[in-house]
Records
---
Amino acid sequence: MENTPILRVENVSKSYNGKAVLKSVSLELNAGQHKVLIGPSGGGKSTLLHCMNYLVTPDSGRIQLDGREVNAHSRKELYAFRQQVGMIFQEFNLFDHLTALDNVAIALRKVKGQSRKEAETRAMAELERVGLADRARHYPAELSGGQKQRVSIARALAMDPKVMLLDEPTSALDPELTGEVVSVIRALARSGMTMAMATHQMEFARALADEILFMQGGEIIERGSPAELLAPGAATRTADFCRRLAEMGGD
Amino acid sequence: MFKKISVVAAVVAACGLMAGPAAAQKVVNGIDANFPPFAYVDKSGKPGGFDVDSVDWIAKKMGFEVSHQPVDWDGIIPSLLAKKIDLICSGMSITEERAKQVSFTDAYWEVKNVFVTKKDSTVTADQLLKGDKKIGVQQGTPEGDWLKDNKEKNGWNFTLRYYDSSPMAVEDVLNGRIDAAGMNDAPAKDAASKKPVKIAGIFGKVDTFGCAVRKEDTALLKKLNDGYKALMADQQWKDLIETHKP
Amino acid sequence: MQHTLDVLIEAVPFLVGGVGTTLLIVIGGMLLGLVLGVPLAVGQVYGNAVTRRAAGLYVWFFRGIPILVLLFLFYYGLFHLIGLNLGAVAAAILVLGMTSAAYQSQIFRGSILSLSQGQFRAASALGMSNAQAIATIILPQALRLSLPGWSNEYSIMLKDSALVFVLGATEIMARTHFVASREYQHMPLYITAALLYFLLTWAGVRSLRTFERKVAIRGYGRT
């Protein structure tokens, strides 16, 4: 069982205007695994996550979900694939014209074809899970950044994804507000959700990751457990990067 | 909410499309409603005038139904050809150019063209044509064409201004923007009866009015010709002239 | 003076009758413009090269030709040629509606482009098709944002409607002209017409603003 990865990325490459952003990247996500992507901005983390959801179509390479390759030319397959892969964006991307509840319920109704009542019951349960049941009737403009990101997590979870991809979920937040989002993600990890996350928060990465992938220049140049890569005095690029982040007052 | 709007939009659009003229076998007379006393729409919205009454009488006599539809003068012949209307009986002068596109009935009216000036003006037709004056005229009329042609031919140096209708030209006479309005004598008398203007003289050639129909509508043309003969032989003709005399 | 007043009092019901025709043309045209303008805007923003080009061509055509010329071209030309036998009002709605669609599509296009692309991506990430994302996420917001532009388009359309007498539709302006020709009371009648247009503009803009408030989203646009 454990040797069939849920999501498998094989030699994925992507370039924009002749500039390679991803250079033949491969990785596997097994059930319940949590992988964290770190590295400098522009290193390809975000593009990789977007490719893993086919929001960005790779120029070459293969992506398999549950051992099945996705046919990127079939829209129907693409839409079905994306449903099973949850995505959390740095900028939350909530639907501004819908309440928190409708933000979560809309895809259940439109994509899964649930009735309004069914969808709202489920949406309410997901909002409760992220601690926002009392904000269900609020519009995005009436929510704090942390609350918005928690709604977006509830929105993704409602679709019952097999994998969650999180693209710097706390980077756009006021540092005061990252805590609530971090604890929701931690709880999600404890519940056994398979995840890949890009982040700059090293403490968070260390606590969450089964494996850290250090990306730079469109390649994964180091990979290993936090213990290996971040051991005191370890001469790794990852440790080096962390030290510099710490010096800059990041984290 | 917006879905509802789209539905309403579609329904309204569909209704609009179907709201074309009913296909009743009614003959529609296109009129220039800005050409009293031959054709006008009165302040309650009812079409009236010498031509309107004549056609009504003829229709009754010849056994067909007619209605009167105001049409923009610029579009009146295209409207006839596009079958939006079936005839034009609205003080239309018979001209060679028009006769290429439509068939005319026999002439039923003779018109002289006259200049309308302010009541206190002393200018004569001759001075208007040969002096450095400004003359207004309704566009698309034979009197307009005559003025333009003869200005070039004779080297006259008046300035010609075109208007949508002759009453608009009369308004500009009163405003002092032009010295005279060139128009048919009947509407000129109509204007003189309502405004401080007078007829200052005759110009151009005598025009004749006829009704226009599509070339292929020979049956209607015959009905109209027969109808006019009957009308002119009737006392009603004199009564109509009397009623509509400005 | 007394005579002028008498004429006006008698003529007002006839002129006000034209308000109905004018409103039918304007509202019909606006709605047709909405129905055609939305797909045009969507085609321009999200379409492939062919639809973008086609929508662009449409907009270029209807924006580039004066409304009076379009009325003539369609009513006496195209409609007649294809055997579409329309009444003057229906034809006016069709031509003004198609023209308005070109302008409205530019309003909608601007609104769509002003929305963050992130919401579209988020909808895709949830498994929505492009059509679903446009219909449920993008358009409800874009149309709300378009309402101020829409009320501007309404007042322009109202004024354009004064031209449709070339087709024989007897709206406010045509009726004013008729009575003026008959009665030689041009100024008082045109002032009355101006008042009617002013009232219609005011009432229309006002109701659109009320509608805008009604569909407003709490806190939206308050960034």
Note: The beta strands of chain A are 7-16, 19-29, 34-38, 60-65, 68-69, 85-88, 163-167, 194-198, 211-216, 219-224.
---
Amino acid sequence: MSQETGINIASSIKDTIIAGLLALIVFGPVVGILLDGYGFETRFDDVAWIVAIVMAGRFAISVFVQTEAGKKFIYRQLIKEDGVTVTAPDYKSKMRYIIPIVIIIGLIAPFIASKYVLTVVILGLIYVLLGLGLNIVVGLAGLLDLGFVGFYAIGAYGLALGYEYLGLGFWSMLPLAAIMAGVAGAILGFPVLRMHGDYLAIVTLGFGEIIRLVLTNWTEFTHGPNGVSAPLPTLFGLEFKRRSRDGTPFHEFFGLSYDSAFKYIFIYLVLFLVVLAVLYVKHRLTRMPIGRAWEALREDEIACRSLGLNHVLVKLSAFTLGAATGGIAGVFFATYQGFVNPSSFTFFESALILAIVVLGGMGSTLGVVIAAFVLTVAPEMLREFADYRVLMFGILMVVMMIWKPRGLVRVTRKGFATRKGVVK
Amino acid sequence: MDIVLQQLVNGLTLGSVYGLIAIGYTMVYGIIGMINFAHGDVYMVSSYLTAIAIALFSFFGLESFPIIIFGTLIFTIIVTGAYGWVIERVAYRPLRNSSRLSVLISAIGMSLILQNYVQISQGARQQGIPTMLTGAIRFDIGDGFVQITYMKLFILFAAFLGMGVLTYIIQKTKLGRMCRATQQDRKMASILGINTDRVISSVFVIGAAMAALAGVLVTLDYGAFDFYVGFIIGIKAFTAAVLGGIGSLPGAMLGGVILGLSEALFAGLISSDYKDVFSFSLLVIILIFRPSGLLGKPEVEKV
């Protein structure tokens, strides 16, 4: 066949026409006819644009896959090797220079940055925490948790309601919320983790929705959709308010004039240290037997069980730790907003956190940190595209799964070597 | 007593709608073992298509109820079927040999895309259609009464007709035989000359068509919808599919009816605020205690 090496334009054109017709059927009614009351307005020019773009794209792809470069590209996609880069045992990562610099910059930054930048960065850091928590569950242990926002809500409402009913402040709720969320994770996880992966996703989704619906409907306890106010953190009992009901506020104690940025600087610093601590713990965990067990279980559950790993306990530990991290993030979110209501804990939030983990790379810590900032800070920068945010996340998730299911940042792992003098 | 009977009637219609949507979940799960997370949003798209079709028909001056209903059904089923095909082709077929986690994440992405795409193109506000079919049959029982609107009767009739047609297709036609063969053993089916990719595509189209039927019926009855309706009803239909035993067609219908009835009774007798909580809790409880559902076979994990 002489056709095989050349480009078959006729079949490309056929593909293009079919794609165009489908685009017309699919986009024509929904985009072209804008419902307006019981009548409608037409927008056929938009439809024409979309159909033209789809046809052009289909034609380009159709021609590309017939060229030599295209064939090579498809071949590479087919033999795509997943996995990790294993470095030599004596390899020293450049990260040991970068990390101290990042820490120093991170500690100095709040005193220079404007209040607006600070609030955006705080939000970014909260999502780093959430991403790290979910990364343990999804990335390392391979359990798809679609109700992660439930644990986030437990943390946030824990602070708000703990303050309202029990008078507990930020510092006592921080560990308590982690424990509460962890316990909730364990209670939910224990029966659920025996089951099949996909069912787990749906059960956790149901759990997240149950939490949100209870928060919305149990108005006597949670004040329903009106929300609850949450307290600010204190520095050894010094409050960051303009006036303090009991004791001196922070700025009077140090003889400074009141500035609302103080509280954000303080939240930022605490949050930054907590994120560092979580990063360190996670870094160590992935090198401990439990972390190895998570990843082994993700790769092949049946093999692990045959080798004697207790799969329920291993999964449960990942689930509980992830949930506890989510709870901590919730406390910071509540104190940063000063107020929580159920609308912050919708399924979309879970999907956003999942997008962070997917983009950053399953199991990659660095990837998650970068992705969390990209996905939370970018929408702040691109306000005019705010409507398209969810669309972008959706496209991102589909494209990433097809193109690079392990995320953008490749996981590296240090190789092992026998110590000199121990094994002959 | 009259409340219970009224809620049974409401629950039966609601349940038949859940059953129609659950068919899409259960067929796709049966054939490629994935949860089509975007299925609820396909239903949502069909609600918009219903309103668009009705607006178009009234614009061209068609007033007769049977013609409008029939035309709307055909239009919505065809376009929604095209959605099912395109979604499978774009988001799931490239992932045929990937891990289940990847496919599920891709499906979640597709669900977000559909929601936001409809929100952008049609606006975030709630939409509605005029009431098409009015009137009701009324039974007096003791002091109270039970009312069955003609619309509810129509829903029951259309839903059971749709399920009957589907059962016929699956049991008697060549396409149905190919579907069943692919469901039992995809590799073997393709060795025996069945184009399994095409069968999988047609399963998505059938699922979308059933969701479209449900979308038309619910929209005609309820009248109002927005771009977010697919999420809750999607989870509930999935609950119905799991309740009946995922992968089993009669199970999906049975599960839909049971879920609809129990949810309506819960809403009528205990609390309507917590009826969604009830459904989700039911889902969690079924999955924990009987993951294979009422009519499903227990799944054996193979290496």
Note: Chain A touches chain B through 56 residues (CB under 8 Å).
